[in-house]
C-alpha cells in the first residue's frame, strides 16, 4: 500500500511517503515560514522523490489534532481533499499519539502534550503494549497542566513527557515528578505517523471529516451558556443558497 | 480555440462557494453554502467559527459544483481561488482545497483578488467595455475602482473608516435588526420618511473617498438621545434618513468619478449592490450618461462564479500561481497616484 502522511499540527511540518510501514521519503521542516506556504510544495517534492504519481497514492494519513487550530485545518483540508479527489483511503490519527510514537523502548506511560497557553495543554497518555503497539491510556483532552499532573499520579507508572512548549512546563513537571523522563526530540517523524496510521480505521465519510479541536470556540462557549437545551439541540447552521 | 473551463473556490468570509465557469462568461455551476445562521448567534462573523464551517462544507460544495456542471477533471483548464482580501483562516481553506485539486490533477493554479472577482461578476451578465468604472460596495469594502483594461485596476477612492455594509450592520443592530441588516433597512427605507437629515460626510471634499463612521455615530446619538428624553422613534424614518444619507454620498462620489474619468460603463459590485434603493437611484440619476451593470443578486454576494470569471482574464495572460501561494488578508488594488491632482 502506497501511503502519503501529513502532520502540521504544531510548529514542525512532517510529510512522508511509505510503502506499507516502510518509509520511502520524508520532509521534516522546523523553519519559520508558514505551513500554508510550505505544505503543498513539500507534498509535491516528497511524492516525486518517491517516484509516485499522484494517482499511485492508496492511503493518506493525517494528524487530525489536537494542535494549532490553523495547523490542523491546513492538514485536514489538504488530506481530505486529496483523498476525495484521488479516490484514496483517508485515515485520521491523533497528533498526540504521533508524538508519543516518537518515544521507543519505554514501558511506562508516555505523556505527549502541546502548549495551549495560560497553563493549559492538549495532552493524552499512551503506553506500548506487549506487541509494541501504542495504546491510549487517557484520552486526549484540553486540560490545565496542574490537573494533568494530578491525574497522572493515579496511574502509578514511570512517566515520559514529550511535547511542544517543554521550556514553559519543564520545571513544573520535574517538581511533581523528579524521575520523569523528558524527551526533547519533539518533531513527529514520518515513521511515527505511518506506524499509527497504518493500523488505524479508514474514515467512512470523508465529506464530514474535520479536525479534532478538543476545544469549542470562545464565542460558541459564551453563547451556549445563555441558551436552553432545546436551542442547543439545533446545529443546522449552514444552508445551501 | 476550445472552451476554457475553470473550477473556482471562494471562502474569504462566511460563504463556502465552488463554481465552474466557461470562458469567463458562462456559469455552469455556482454552489454557495452560507453560514449566516451560525454567525447570527453572535451578531456578526466570528473568524474561528467561520474557518471551522469552511472545512465542513468544502467537499460538499466541490462535489455539487462538478456534478451540476457535468464536468470531470479532464474537462478543466485551471483551478482558481480567492487568496485575499478576507479573513485569513477562512481564505486558507479554499486555498488548500484549490491547491490539492490543482496538484492532484496537474491543473494550473490561479490566485484571484476577491475584489477583482466582484467586479468581474459583471462579465457574467454583460461584456465589460474598457475603460470602466466600478463601485464596489460590501460589508468589507467601499471603493471606486477604475478598470483601465482587462485586469488593470486602480483605486480612485475608498473609505477612511467603516465599509458601507458595515455601517448598515451597525445601525441595524441599534434598530434591533439581526445581522446582516442590509435587506431590512432597505425595505424600511422605502416605507419611512427622511426626517432626521443626518450629516453627509465628505460630500463636498475634493476627492473620491468615503467616510461612514460619522453618520453611524449620528444615528446612534439620535437613538440614545430619544431614549434619554423619552421621545418615541419611528425606526422606519431612521432607516429612510440613514439610507438616503448613504445613497447621497455614494451617488455624489460616483458622479464625481464619472466626471473625471469618462467611461462607457459603471459596474456596481459587492453585497450592497443588492440594495434596491441604490439600484433605483443609480438608474434614475446615471442611466442617461453611462451604461449600468448590476450583476443579479446571487452574483452580488460572495460567490465562486465571479472568481472563475476573473480567473479567465489571468488564464489568458498566463498569470499562474505556484503551490506556494499564500493567503493575503489585506490584498488590495494599487491606488491611482494622480487622482488628487486631477480633481
* Widest beta sheet: strand line-up of chain A: 3-2-1-4-5
Bulk shape of chain A? globular
Q: What value does the Rg of chain A take, in angstroms? A: 19 Å
Cα Rg of chain B: 20 Å
Q: How many beta strands in the DSSP annotation of chain B?
A: 11
Order of helices and strands of chain A: EEEHEHEHEEEHEHEHHHE
Averaged pLDDT of chain A: 95
Helix content of chain B: 40-55%
> Can you tell me the CATH topology of the largest domain in chain A?
Nucleotidyltransferase, domain 5
CATH superfamily of the largest domain in chain B: ATPase, nucleotide binding domain
Structurally, the number of domains of chain A stands at 2
Binding site for Fe cation (chain B): 114, 118, 302
InterPro entries (chain B): ATPase_NBD, Gcp-like_dom, KAE1/TsaD, Peptidase_M22_CS, TsaD
Domain Gcp-like (chain B): 26-308
EC number (chain B): 2.3.1.234
Characterization of this structure:
The complex is a heterodimer of chains A (241) and B (343). Chain A has 241 residues and is an alpha/beta fold. Chain A folds into 2 domains: 2-95 and 188-215, ATPase, nucleotide binding domain (Nucleotidyltransferase, domain 5), CATH 3.30.420.40; 103-183, Nucleotidyltransferase, domain 5 (2-Layer Sandwich), CATH 3.30.420. Helices cover 34% and strands 29% of the residues of chain A. Chain A has 8 helices and 11 strands. Chain A has helices at residues 35-50, 69-86, 95-101, 145-153, 166-176, 190-198, 218-225, 229-233, and strands at residues 2-7, 13-19, 22-29, 59-63, 89-93, 109-115, 120-128, 134-144, 159-164, 181-183, 239-240. In chain A, the strands form 2 sheets. In chain A, strands 3-2-1-4-5 form a 5-stranded mixed beta sheet, sandwiched between helices. In chain A, strand 7 (120-128) and strand 8 (134-144) form a beta hairpin. Chain A starts with a strand and ends with a strand. By secondary structure, chain B is of the alpha/beta class. Chain B folds into 2 domains: 5-122 and 299-335, 2-Layer Sandwich (Nucleotidyltransferase, domain 5); 129-294, Nucleotidyltransferase, domain 5 (2-Layer Sandwich), CATH 3.30.420.40. Chain B has helices at residues 36-40, 47-69, 88-104, 114-120, 164-174, 182-189, 213-229, 235-260, 276-286, 297-300, 304-316, 339-342, and strands spanning 5-10, 15-22, 26-34, 78-84, 109-113, 132-137, 142-149, 152-158, 265-269, 291-293, 334-335. In chain B, a hairpin with a 4-residue loop joins strand 1 (5-10) and strand 2. In chain B, helix 5 runs parallel beside helix 7 (213-229) and helix 8 (235-260) crosses helix 9. The radius of gyration of chain B is 20 Å and the shape is globular. The model of chain B has no long low-confidence stretch (mean pLDDT 94). Chain A binds chain B through residues 34, 36-41, 43-44, 54, 69-70, 73-74, 76-78, 80-82, 84-86, 206-208, 210-211, 213, 217-220, 223, 236-241, and chain B through 31-38, 41-42, 46, 48-49, 51-53, 55-60, 62-64, 73, 89, 92-93, 95-97, 99-101, 103-106, 298, 322-324, 326-327. Chain A: Residues 33-222 form the Gcp-like domain. Chain A: This is tRNA (Adenosine(37)-N6)-threonylcarbamoyltransferase complex dimerization subunit type 1 TsaB. Chain A: GO terms for molecular function: tRNA N(6)-L-threonylcarbamoyladenine synthase activity.
Amino acid at each position: 500500500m502506497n501511503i502519503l502522511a501529513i502532520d502540521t499540527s504544531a510548529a514542525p511540518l512532517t510529510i512522508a511517503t511509505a510503502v506499507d510501514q516502510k518509509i520511502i521519503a520524508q520532509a521534516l521542516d522546523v523553519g519559520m515560514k508558514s505551513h500554508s506556504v510550505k505544505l503543498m510544495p513539500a507534498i509535491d517534492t516528497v511524492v516525486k522523490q518517491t517516484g509516485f504519481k499522484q494517482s499511485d497514492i492508496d492511503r493518506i494519513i493525517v494528524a487530525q489534532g489536537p494542535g494549532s487550530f490553523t495547523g490542523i485545518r491546513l492538514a485536514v483540508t489538504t488530506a481530505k481533499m486529496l483523498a476525495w479527489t484521488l479516490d484514496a483511503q483517508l485515515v485520521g490519527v491523533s497528533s498526540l499519539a504521533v508524538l508519543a510514537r516518537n518515544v521507543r523502548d519505554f514501558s511506562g506511560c508516555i505523556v505527549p502534550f502541546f502548549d495551549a497557553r495560560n497553563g493549559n495543554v492538549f495532552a493524552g497518555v499512551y503506553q506500548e503494549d506487549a506487541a509494541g503497539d501504542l495504546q491510549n491510556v487517557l484520552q486526549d483532552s484540553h486540560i490545565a497542566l496542574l490537573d494533568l499532573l494530578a491525574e497522572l499520579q493515579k496511574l502509578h507508572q514511570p512517566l515520559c513527557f514529550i511535547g511542544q512548549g517543554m521550556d514553559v512546563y519543564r520545571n513544573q513537571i520535574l517538581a511533581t515528578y523528579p524521575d520523569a523522563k523528558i524527551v526533547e526530540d519533539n518533531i513527529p517523524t514520518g515513521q511515527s505517523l505511518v506506524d499509527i496510521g497504518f493500523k488505524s480505521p479508514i474514515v467512512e465519510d470523508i465529506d464530514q471529516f474535520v479536525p479534532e479541536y478538543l476545544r469549542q470556540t470562545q464565542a460558541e462557549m459564551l453563547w451556549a451558556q445563555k441558551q436552553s437545551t432545546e436551542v442547543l439541540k439545533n446545529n443546522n447552521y449552514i444552508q445551501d443558497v | 480555440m476550445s472552451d476554457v473551463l475553470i473550477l473556482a473556490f471562494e471562502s474569504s468570509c462566511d460563504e463556502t462557494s465552488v463554481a465552474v465557469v466557461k470562458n469567463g462568461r458562462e456559469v455552469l455551476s455556482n454552489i454557495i453554502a452560507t453560514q449566516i445562521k451560525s454567525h447570527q448567534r453572535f451578531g456578526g462573523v466570528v473568524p474561528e467559527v467561520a474557518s471551522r464551517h469552511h472545512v465542513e462544507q468544502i467537499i460538499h460544495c466541490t462535489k455539487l459544483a462538478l456534478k451540476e456542471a457535468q464536468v470531470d477533471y479532464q474537462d478543466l483548464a485551471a483551478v482558481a481561488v480567492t487568496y485575499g482580501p478576507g479573513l485569513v483562516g477562512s481564505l486558507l481553506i479554499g486555498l488548500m482545497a484549490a491547491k490539492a485539486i490543482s496538484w492532484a490533477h496537474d491543473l494550473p493554479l490561479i490566485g484571484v483578488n476577491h475584489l477583482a472577482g466582484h467586479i468581474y461578476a459583471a462579465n457574467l451578465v454583460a461584456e465589460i467595455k474598457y475603460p470602466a468604472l466600478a463601485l464596489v460596495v460590501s460589508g468589507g469594502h467601499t471603493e471606486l475602482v477604475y478598470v483601465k483594461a482587462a485586469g488593470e485596476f486602480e483605486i480612485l477612492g475608498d473609505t477612511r473608516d467603516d465599509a458601507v455594509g458595515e455601517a448598515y450592520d451597525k445601525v441595524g443592530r441599534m434598530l434591533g435588526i439581526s445581522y446582516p441588516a442590509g435587506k431590512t433597512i432597505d425595505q424600511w427605507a422605502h416605507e419611512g420618511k427622511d426626517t432626521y437629515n443626518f450629516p453627509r460626510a465628505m460630500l463636498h471634499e475634493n476627492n473620491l473617498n468615503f467616510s461612514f463612521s460619522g453618520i453611524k455615530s449620528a444615528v446612534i446619538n439620535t437613538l440614545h438621545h430619544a431614549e434619554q428624553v423619552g421621545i418615541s422613534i419611528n425606526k422606519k424614518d431612521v432607516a429612510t434618513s440613514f439610507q438616503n444619507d448613504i445613497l447621497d454620498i455614494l451617488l455624489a462620489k460616483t458622479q464625481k468619478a464619472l466626471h473625471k474619468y469618462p467611461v462607457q460603463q459603471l459596474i456596481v459590485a459587492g453585497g450592497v449592490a443588492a440594495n434596491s434603493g441604490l439600484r433605483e437611484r443609480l438608474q434614475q440619476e446615471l442611466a442617461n450618461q453611462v451604461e449600468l451593470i448590476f450583476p443579479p443578486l446571487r452574483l452580488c454576494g460572495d460567490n465562486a462564479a465571479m472568481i472563475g470569471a476573473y480567473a479567465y482574464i489571468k488564464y489568458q495572460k498566463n498569470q499562474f500561481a505556484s503551490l506556494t501561494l499564500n493567503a493575503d488578508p489585506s490584498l488590495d488594488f494599487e491606488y491611482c497616484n494622480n487622482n488628487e491632482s486631477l480633481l
